[in-house]
């Protein structure tokens, strides 16, 4: 597993619900933002993926809500890849408040879709190893 990549986010007022808590769907947006930021930092942006006719896909996502977030809270959204054998990989993420309190844990199973065959590619780890400019961001 890689060391977590991290991006800062400030909770915005319009992202909260009627109780003043961060809306549950926004946790997914924060997680997605961190994943795309990691890919971009590793030199694997959307243009690079599309040039290879490959698209990342989410196959499963689980969120554990642990502590509430409110407008103005400063958080870090971490992202670490966990590799196994086969066509899928796991992405482990935490959303942590500035005081170190973990607000949420997001665990995802993902894959890389061959956009022409509409099937997952056989070895996503190998694909990222070949395409990335910084394999350490993927724990490689």
Describe the structure.
There is one protein chain. This protein starts with a strand and ends in a 9-residue tail after the last helix. Helix content is 23%, strand content 38%. By secondary structure, it is of the alpha+beta class. The protein has one domain (5-126): Roll (Thiol Ester Dehydrase, Chain A). The longest helix is centred in the first third of the chain and has 18 residues, at 24-41. Strands 1, 2, 3, 4, 5 and 6 form a 6-stranded antiparallel β-sheet that branches.
How large, in whole angstroms, is the Cα Rg?
A: 16 Å
**Strand/helix succession:** EHHEEEEEH
The CATH architecture is Roll
Q: Which class in CATH terms?
A: Alpha Beta
Task: Describe this protein with a few key phrases.
140 residues, alpha+beta, Thiol Ester Dehydrase, Chain A
Q: How do you describe this structure in short?
A:
With 140 residues, the protein is an alpha+beta fold. The protein has helices spanning 24-41, 46-51, 124-131; strands at residues 5-10, 54-65, 74-83, 88-97, 102-114, 119-120. The model has no long low-confidence stretch (mean pLDDT 95).
How are the elements arranged and paired?
Elements: E1 5-10, H1 24-41, H2 46-51, E2 54-65, E3 74-83, E4 88-97, E5 102-114, E6 119-120, H3 124-131
Antiparallel strand pairs: 1-3, 2-5, 3-4, 4-5, 5-6
